[in-house]
Automatic annotation (TrEMBL):
Top-level taxon: Bacteria
Protein's gene: gatA
Protein name: Glutamyl-tRNA(Gln) amidotransferase subunit A
Transferase among keywords: no
Active site: 59 (charge relay system), 134 (charge relay system), 158 (acyl-ester intermediate)
Functional summary from the UniProt entry: Allows the formation of correctly charged Gln-tRNA(Gln) through the transamidation of misacylated Glu-tRNA(Gln) in organisms which lack glutaminyl-tRNA synthetase. The reaction takes place in the presence of glutamine and ATP through an activated gamma-phospho-Glu-tRNA(Gln).
Organism the protein comes from: Stutzerimonas tarimensis
Length: 453
């Protein structure tokens, strides 16, 4: 069948199912059909490629020329980007067809997709539960088979955690592997775009198109790309896997721990060896992250002032009033909380006590990984300490949601790549297993996930 037929079928499916799920903010029907027809023509002219004509969608913080890019915030509710993000451009030139823009936590701040200006997203496996966040729209749309794959971003787990809670594969590449150009910034030293899909193979396909050096992003790394597809079928014989003892403690749901150990047994059956390792500074990761991420966010979000982009308050009295009311009315509660925490942490007199100290902890966390990777090729553990929780359950206590990031944020602080893969179900809900590898070893993560799947 043609890409146009496939696109039409999925657009119908979105119309039927998405009013309940709320995974899309914008559906670009006409544009999608145009892209699909163009892909069909390219294929008819002899062009090949697995992404040519493949339907996808983008998290709504990737700028898309001529299409709304809201970051799920009121402050950008009317923002139409004049250009495409690098990731959007690269996937489009590979022939992928974008069906629209996906819901997310406002400015990617959250773990449940409940802070969106466009309302919460539901988990397709249980509509009373969250899909995880902040790439919750991407996760729900793929899990409900509205699209086969999507882009997401991961600052502290936002690709891996929703992938885990919805039974998908999601990959956070090494910092610098995927261009951040045109990706609206949350915490610039941690943000990284990546693929989400049902299988490691689909993630490999997407990553191959998304990744690579981009001179427009000063932190983009100029290093050759691996052939992610070719690497999928490497034998796992002799692979050395480390299980961090700090991961398997009282905070982890015992049934999730059992699932993780089942995966370990299977990988042993494929020839892997397993040893216990230690990441001694892990306990400091959440406090350090929740200083660094808000600090960078407070700086990044200062550009939303009611003057240059998006929402502007009615009838401002003067410039101060314009700034104040546009921001007060434009940002949601979680975003304001982060801006205040970050501004405090960066202010004179507190900088050394908070930001500088958090940066030192960050270095210790990276050193823990470098030390561990002297003995093992890969680190394995749970992606999340708990299963998908009920919508609204953690709203009153933001810190309880922050604690859900315990296993994912260390990879962002260290800059290393991480992948979450589906490991079955507990009580009818999906469980994810996380794999972590040294810098630029995305191919190994995909290889192991593919071997297991
Ligand atoms: N839950 C984390 C936060 O709220 C991570 C979000 C993300 O990775 N974008 O900051």
């Amino acid at each position: 069948f043609s890409s146009e037929e496939l696109t039409r079928t999925l657009l119908e499916r979105i119309k039927t199912l998405d009013p309940e799920l709320n995974s899309f903010i914008t559906v670009t029907e006409e544009r999608a059909l145009e892209q699909a027809r163009a892909a069909d023509t390219r294929r008819a002219n002899g062009e090949t490629g697995a992404l040519l004509g493949a339907p996808i969608a983008h998290k709504d913080l990737f700028c898309t020329q001529g299409v709304l890019t809201t970051c799920a915030s009121r402050i950008l509710h009317n923002f139409v980007s004049p250009y495409d993000a690098s990731v959007v451009e690269r996937l489009a030139s590979a022939g992928a067809v974008s069906l629209g823009k996906l819901n997310m936590d406002e400015f990617a701040m959250g773990s449940a997709n409940e802070s969106s200006h466009y309302g919460p997203v539901k988990n397709p496996w249980d509509l009373t539960r969250v899909p995880g966040g902040s790439s919750g729209g991407s996760a729900a749309a793929i899990a409900a088979r509205l699209i086969p794959a999507a882009t997401g971003t991961d600052t502290g787990g936002s690709i891996r955690q929703p992938a885990a809670l919805t039974g998908l594969t999601g990959l956070k590449p090494t910092y610098g592997r995927v261009s951040r150009w045109g990706m609206i910034a949350y915490a610039s030293s941690l943000d990284q775009g990546g693929p989400m899909a049902r299988s490691a193979e689909d993630c490999a396909l997407l990553l191959g198109a998304m990744a690579g050096f981009d001179p427009r992003d000063s932190t983009s790394v100029d290093q050759p790309l691996d052939d992610y597809l070719a690497g999928l079928n490497q034998p796992l014989n002799g692979l050395r896997i480390g299980l961090p003892k700090e991961y398997f403690t009282a905070g982890l749901d015992a049934k999730i721990a059992d699932k993780v150990m089942e995966v370990v047994e299977q990988l042993k059956g494929l020839g892997a060896t397993v040893m216990e390792i230690s990441l001694p500074n892990m306990q400091h990761a959440i406090p350090a992250y929740y200083v660094i991420a808000p600090a960078e966010a407070s700086s990044n979000l200062s550009r939303f002032d009611g003057v240059r982009y998006g929402y502007r308050c009615e009838a401002p009295k003067d410039l101060q009033d314009l700034y104040k009311r546009s921001r007060a009315e434009g940002f949601g509660a979680e975003v304001k909380r982060r801006i205040m925490v970050g501004t405090y942490a960066l202010s004179a007199g507190y900088y050394d006590a908070y930001y500088l100290k958090a940066q030192k902890i960050r270095r210790l966390i990276r050193n823990d990984f470098l030390e561990a990777f002297k003995d093992v090729d890969l680190i394995l553990g749970p992606t999340t300490p708990n299963l998908a929780w009920k919508l609204g359950e953690k709203n009153a206590d933001p810190v309880s949601a922050y604690l859900e990031d315990i296993y994912t944020i260390t990879a962002n602080l260290a800059g290393i790549p991480g992948l979450s893969m589906p490991a079955g179900f507990v009580d009818g809900l999906p469980v994810g297993v996380q794999l972590l590898a040294p810098d630029f070893q995305e191919a190994r993560l995909l290889n192991v996930a593919h071997g297991y799947q």
